Amino acid sequence: MSRKVVNVVDSEPRLALIVNTIVGPMVALAVGERLAVLDFDLGRQVGFEEGSIRREPFKSLKNWLDSYGARRPPQKTPKLELVGTPFQEIVWASLLEIPYGRATTYGGLAERIRVQLGRPAMSAQAVGQAVRRNPVALVVPCHRVVGRCGELIGYAGGVDRKATLLRHEGLLEQIGSGRFAAFNGWRD
């Protein structure tokens, strides 16, 4: 997945808004019209002005959250400002390719990135660290990555929230019953 890296201009408005989600309130931070953070740490809004749900990217985020909350796969992802290392950005782009109602393993995601980068090996732990640093939870679906045997591990919002999200998407029962088939339909 190719993405254009956007440089943040100092004059762009930095806005914050508390939004309600199916797993509780989250803080959404925007730079200009791009969503930069969706996090459970409500204290992250320091240094940001109060935003409005009628303004982008919050309007797009609300539409996305409404669709998700109604168990409909969101059709349009808000414009994102994902800033990390080049490796983290590759991992986050791969997360965006995991469709609603599907999940993969950390090992499966590492294999996907290994092939994409043309490397002889890729550490699932390194991929897990990049997943853990995902700044836009829910929208960049890090909750759809599970352990090798379907264990619910490694979610910054807590395992209970991860379970709630997977249950909401109809995945928790599959994972818990041993009928889990990891997503491997990557587009190259």
Structural class designation = alpha/beta
**What distance lies between the first and last C-alpha atoms, to the nearest angstrom?**
8 Å
| Count of individual helical segments | 6
Helix content: 25-40%
How much of the sequence is in beta strands? Answer: 5-15%
On the 0 to 100 scale, the average pLDDT is: 88
The largest sheet, given as strand count, sense and whether it forms a barrel, is: 4 strands, mixed
Q: Rounded to an integer, what's the Rg over CA atoms?
A: 16 Å
**At CATH's second level, what is the architecture of the domain at 86-177?**
Orthogonal Bundle
- Assign the CATH topology of the domain at 86-177: Arc Repressor Mutant, subunit A
Number of strands: 6
Instruction: Tell me the name of the CATH class of the domain at 86-177.
Output: Mainly Alpha
In short:
The protein is of the alpha/beta class and 188 residues long. Helix content is 31%, strand content 15%. The protein is built from 6 helices and 6 strands; from the N terminus they run E-E-E-E-H-H-E-H-H-E-H-H.
